[in-house]
Give the backbone structure.
Amino acid sequence: MSKYIFVTGGVTSSLGKGIIAASLAKLLQARGFKVTIQKFDPYINIDPGTLNPYEHGECYVTEDGAETDLDLGHYERFLNVPTSRANNITTGRIYQHVIEQERAGAYLGKTVQVVPHITDEIKRRMLLLGENNEYDIIITELGGTVGDIESLPFIEAVRQLRWELGNNDSLVIHLTLVPYLAAAGELKTKPTQHSVKTLLEYGIQPDILVCRTEHKLTHEIRKKLAQFCNVNINAVVESIDAPTIYDVPLNMLKEQLDKTALAKLKLSTKNDPNLDSWKVFLGKLKNPTNEVTIGLVGKYVELPDAYKSIIEAFVHAGANNETRVKLNFIAAESIHNENVQEKLKGLDGVLVAPGFGERGLDGKLAAIKYVRENNIPFFGICLGMQCSIIEFGRNVLGLADANSTEMAPETQNPVINLMDDQKDVTDKGGTMRLGAYDCELKKGTKAFASYGKTKISERHRHRYEFNNDYLKQYEEAGMIATGINPITGLVEIVEIKNHPFYIATQFHPELKSTVANPHPLFVSFVAASLANKNC
């Protein structure tokens, strides 16, 4: 039978529940346990697919096409194991299911209520991943902060589950903040005490406290927290600010978070955790021999979380190349033909990021034209690829009004067009081309050189595609389709022949980059940017 760990948060949001959950999972995995993580989000959206990145950061897409919370990206990057739609549940999805059941008459005339019907559905979803005994331990992260109105049904569901599962089959980790008051010159425990008190009022006694802090916790502070929060002193875990998120598993190992959790679950500690490859990665990350500066041109650069997977893919690829990657975030709207040289000055490579809509399009086109003409390594993703096709059409093929029908429905040269299977779609949520699809690479290309094979699978999130009516015209002018979907003929990758590095993809390679397996296109792009710098 699977064991269950629930991770809650208190005092404030953005303390890093996802990183703590992923770090604990990594330690348990390194001991030989089969572990997965799921995220329960309290918002009423069915999924984050329709949310603006400014609202929620990046929308992470799984292999099976689920649009999910960005924390699932952390889970995959740490564990090197794919997640699915079963790993991310929202309040909206819970209520949608219960209401559909009520309409179908499943409740036999009963009054449908939050307790027991909503909480029962939450519990069913929480236990779903454990039904086939595929996992030894399932970690469930609860979004939001204890005390939030929208989180209450999830907290109640955990309370009931703990009673049903028993003390040895579940535990609660409460992540909280121990702030440092500079004026007083000391750490304060009261916020944590009040947070735990709120949790106790809901009927849940946390088993482990993970305390986010800027300063070391003294023995006296730990003792005070243990005494007033009803936990053992060895269950008060320090989570001090770290240079990178990838330091956190080793910090949690020092704090023996995994040992404490296993003891409370009555599980053997098995082997000591094997983190050799993780330490090698950290060694390369912290001791680079080179440095490159790469410009990230995008619409949402004010909120780096909108590009979280891209940022982390550069971390992985940089470590693989023993190169520090400095990202220069450049707002696409700030670029135009007159200032593009100044904006891109000193960059060793340029990535044009994904996005939707017309805002910032001209800036992206100006940036792509500049790097194409000046032989600066270029990498375009999703809309970045579509922009590269529009720019090439206008400035090389002479198609002055080349455009995407997303931006200009009436254009006479729709080099980017709505996919055929999207033309009758009216609903916005979960209806794009989503998830993993096969792609075949042409030998002798930079894409093939990066992957080292002809058959790959990558994740997508788009409605528009390259218009194959123009393919022959583009290839004769030097822009080659080097990756094609074998079933639909969809152009997945384009390259320019006589350019040091010019690759653009319709798919999102950043979604499959992990610590253990840095994405080959990012690795090649960083290497090309380094070569450009050295030239």
In short: DSSP finds 18 helices and 23 strands in the chain. The CA atoms of residues 4 and 165 lie 9 Å apart.
